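Below is a filled-in request sheet from our internal design queue. Each sheet records the structural input a requester submitted and the sequence that came back. We keep these sheets so that new team members can see what a complete request looks like end to end.

REQUESTER: design group, bay 2
PRIORITY: normal
MODE: inverse folding
CHAIN LENGTH: 119
BACKBONE (tokenized):
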């Protein structure tokens, strides 16, 4: 399994299990489906479709003020940019993940996640 996919999936599991996913206007199933479609596209190197699905999920998560969803989709977007060789964009998105996870109710993650070695 791809190291970056493994890290993304592990991050998702940590977020879901520790904090739970809170969605006000967006269903959890909708976010999971967009994430799944993005992963499928990424797996076959259809990066434009993967970015489209992840951006949709990110926008819906932001609309619902769902910090966990925001972190997951930002992380997935960073994986796509890494796969495209756009390392600065990947790093920028990973930094945004860390910002989201270190704020508010997600403060349990503060100082616990270091993504720089995987780039």
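RETURNED SEQUENCE:
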């Amino acid at each position: 399994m791809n190291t970056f996919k493994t890290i993304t999936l592990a991050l998702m599991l940590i977020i879901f299990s520790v904090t739970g996913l809170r969605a006000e206007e967006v269903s959890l199933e909708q976010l999971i489906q967009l994430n799944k479609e993005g992963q499928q596209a990424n797996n076959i190197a259809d990066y434009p479709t993967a970015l489209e699905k992840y951006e949709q999920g990110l926008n819906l998560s932001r609309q619902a003020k769902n910090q966990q969803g925001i972190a997951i989709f930002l992380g997935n977007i960073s994986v796509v940019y890494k796969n495209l060789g756009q390392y600065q964009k990947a790093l920028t998105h990973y930094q945004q993940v860390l910002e989201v996870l270190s704020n508010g109710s997600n403060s349990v993650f503060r100082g616990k996640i270091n993504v720089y070695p995987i780039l």
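SHEET NOTES:
- The domain at 3-19+26-118 is CATH 1.25.40.10 (Serine Threonine Protein Phosphatase 5, Tetratricopeptide repeat).
- Confidence is low (pLDDT under 50) at residues 16-24, 108-119.
FILED BY: M.R.
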